[in-house]
Amino acid sequence: MMKILFVINTMKIGGTRSSLINLLHLLPYDKVEAHLLVLSPHGPYMSQIDERVKVVPATRICEWVFSSKKDLSVPDKIGRYALAVIRKIFGDKVKYKLAANSYSRLTAENYDAVIGFQEGVTVNMAALLPGKTHMCWIHNDYINLGEKSTGFRESFDVMNKIFFVANAAKESFDSGYPGYSDKLQVIKNTVDIDSILEKAKEPVSDSPFKNEAIKFVSVGRVAHQKQYIRAVNTAKALNNMGISFKWIIIGDGNEKSMLTEKIRNEGLENCIEFIGARKNPYPYMSMADALIVTSLYESQPMVILESLLLGVPVISTDFSSAAEMLSGKEYAIICDNSDDAVTQAVTDIVNSEKLTAMKNATKGFTYDNNAIVQNILEVIENEVNKVH
């Protein structure tokens, strides 16, 4: 039986953590013993971890290094401050070494594979933990990530395999980090289909949708990458046309207050609304007529797969992996990655019968989780055999 340690930074709401939850639920536990180290063990998704997974307690030093101040007790805040002083003296890399050493002293586990499930701090930490092999997952477009979000180059030197959820993400990494081509492999996200469909049936008492003629939804962090300003501008254009619609954005982030104020200033409160993050977004998504993705860039957005499983068609901007997922599909429209193109694409489906055809086409969408999980296990087994 293979013993695998997954490492993730936190379990707060987000697409990568959702993907991890899905994968852990789909693993064959007659063949795999799965452990999970959450560096900052906070967030709504902590309660959704499969009960067959052994959750490894994070050490106090891990908390100091990786948790935000609001998640820490007063003594731990003091520890975090002391650690910040040490980092100023010895550099940022020392925090990973201290955290990894504190963890290693508490466990005698001999893992076949240690897998950092997200770029950045998770990769850096996974590279330092003991295991026969080391692997990591990249869930974003490296060209557009800041230096702190990418991971140290020496961390990738340790990795036996570097996984990507889309070919475009793999190519982006290869162009920025040459020399690792033989380690790179595309393995797509898993999607817990049964769970999504079941959760979508849960009743909601605060539905923002009323009697609008058409309903839109967008899902994701309210951050620059997502370009939700395009949603606000498009909503203004539709409102000026006298169209009856409601557009909700599910998510939180640093641009939420600014965009909410813009909505208020434009008098758009009745037709577009930021409703915040939801532990279970699926009932809201299933009520919508279309998912609108306005992002500058993405890798393999989980929300697109989830939307299609719920029978909700997609309009997406043209980022590197959009064509891989949606090109030529009758249930989707890819528009240019610009403000005007988003407005035009949304306006077009409102003023035509195209949306009905797109909805019907979602019935033909399928997704093979079993093949993905089997691929993952085969790769891990092959790498473990190499080191024997």
Secondary structure layout:
Layout (H helix, E strand, L loop, with lengths): L1 E9 L4 H12 L5 E9 L13 E3 L3 H7 L7 H17 L2 H12 L8 E4 L4 H6 L6 E6 L14 H6 L2 E4 L2 H10 L7 E3 L6 H7 L14 E6 L9 H12 L4 E6 L5 H11 L5 E5 L5 H6 L2 E4 L8 H8 L4 E4 L4 H5 L5 E4 L3 H12 L3 H8 L7 H19 L1
Parallel strand pairs: 1-2, 1-4, 2-3, 4-5, 5-6, 6-7, 8-9, 8-11, 9-10, 11-12, 12-13
Question: Describe it for me?
Answer:
The chain is of the alpha/beta class and 388 residues long. It contains 16 helices and 13 strands. The protein has a seven-stranded parallel sheet, with helices on both faces. It has a six-stranded parallel sheet with strand order 10-9-8-11-12-13, sandwiched between helices. The longest helix is centred in the last third of the chain and has 19 residues, at 369-387.
Distance between the termini: 15 Å
Radius of gyration: 22 Å
Say how many strands there are: 13
Mean pLDDT over the residues: 90
Strand % is: 15-25%
Helix content: 40-55%
Order of helices and strands: EHEEHHHEHEHEHEHEHEHEHEHEHEHHH
The backbone outline, from C-alpha atoms, is globular
Characteristics of this structure?
single chain, 388 residues, alpha/beta, 7-stranded parallel beta sheet, 6-stranded parallel beta sheet, 17% strand
